Amino acid sequence: MRALVLFLALAFLLPAGAEEARGLFVAVGYGGRRMASRDGRTWENDTRWSDTAADDDNVLFNVAFGLGRFIAVGGGAEKGRIVTTRDGREWQELPALRGRVATIVFGRGRFIAGHDAELLWSSDGENFTPGEKLAWPGSVHARRAAWGDGEAGPRCVIVGDFDSWAEKKRVSWRASTEDGTRYTSRALDTPAARDVAYGSGHWVVVGPDGLIESSHDGQTWTRRETEPGEDFSRIVWTGSRFLVSGGKSAWSSPDGTAWAKEPHAIPCSLAWAREGFALGFSWGGNIHATADFAAWKKLPLPPGPSFEAVAFGAP
Questions:
Q1: Better pLDDT: 278 or 18
Q2: Which pTM does this prediction carry?
C-alpha cells in the first residue's frame, strides 16, 4: 500500500505527456543563473556567476537539450558563453567567444546556435564550428530560434534584429538554416518578431501590435488575424496547440493559422508547455507552474536573478 501511495504521489508531481518520463528541466537566466528540477515544481542546484540581473557578459539567454546533455548560451559584447551539463549540477564552460551567443536549438543530431550574425554548429555538444555569417553592414543580433520539419524540410528558423550603420536605425530579420553551416534563406526589414515556435507543420512568430505570422517552410510568412494593441512576447507549442503570452489576453491555435482568445490570461512569460503542465517566468527570479493554464502558482525559490529559458530532456 505504501508503494502504491508513493507511485501515485510521483505521478501527480510529474507533468502530463510522454516527455515527462523521468526527465529533467533546466532553467537559465541573468547572472548566469541555472537551476534544475525533476518535476517542474521543486527546483534545486541554484548556480550563478552573479546576483545581478544585468544585460552583461553573464546572461544566459537560451538552453537546448540533445545528445544526452543540456547546452546553455549567452554572454555579451565582450564574451560569448556556452556551458553544458548532463545532470543540472555539474557544469562545464566551453571556450569563450567574442560576442553574444543568444540562441540554440537541437535537431537532426546537432546543435545549431546563433552567434550574432554567425551560425555555429556542433555534432557532439563539445566542439562548435563556425558557419556562414550574415554580411550586412551593421550590428546583427540573433534573438530566438526554433527547429522544425516543415513543407520544405527540416530546418532551424532564427529571428533577430539589425542596427544599420548607414541608416542609423534598428530593423528586424528572419533567416533559416538546414544544418548550421550556411543560411538557407534570409530576409531583412521584416515585421518585428520577439519569439518563434514550431508545431503542426508550421513555424509561428509573435511580436508587438498583435503580430502573429505563420510559415509552412520557414521562408514565406502569412499574417494571422488577432487584435491590434496586443503585445505578444512568447509562444510555445504544447503538443496539440500553440499558446501565446504577453498580451492583454492569451491566444491559442491548433495549427498556427486560425487563432482565438483563451478564457484566462497568463500572468507570466510562457517558457515551456505540454498539455497538462506548463512553466512561465516573471521578473525577480520567479518560476510559475500550472496544470490547467488557468491557475498559475508561483513556486518557492531562493531570491536571485530572473530566468530567460527552460529546456526539458532525459539525460
A1: 278
A2: 0.92
> The domain containing residue 258 runs over which residues?
2-313
Query: What percentage of the chain has pLDDT greater than the value 90?
Result: 89
193: Cβ contacts below 8 Å, ≥ 6 apart: 144, 159, 172, 174, 205, 206, 207, 211, 213
Q: Cα 96 to chain center, whole Å?
A: 21
Give the torsion sign (CA, 109, 178, 215, 115).
positive
What CATH code is carried by the domain that includes residue 74? 2.120.10.30
Closest C-alpha among 204, 97, 89, 227 to residue 144? 204
Q: Which residues are CB-contacts of 58 (< 8 A; sequence separation ≥ 6)?
A: 30, 31, 32, 49, 50, 52, 74, 75, 76, 81
In the DSSP assignment, the letter for residue 267 is: S
Question: What is the phi/psi pair of residue 5, to 5°?
Answer: -60, -40
For residue 146, which phi and psi values (nearest 5 degrees)? -145, 135
Residues 100 and 77 sit within 8 Å (Cβ to Cβ):
yes
Q: Is 162 exposed, middle or buried (0-12, 13-18, 19+ CB in 10 A)?
A: buried
Decide if 145 contacts 104 (C-beta within 8 A). Answer: yes
Hunting for cell 531562493 — which residue is that? 302
Q: Cell for 39?
A: 518535476
DSSP strand pairing (222-223 vs 307-313): unpaired
Give the tens place of pLDDT for each residue, 293-309. 999 999 999 999 999 99
Structural domain total, the chain: 1
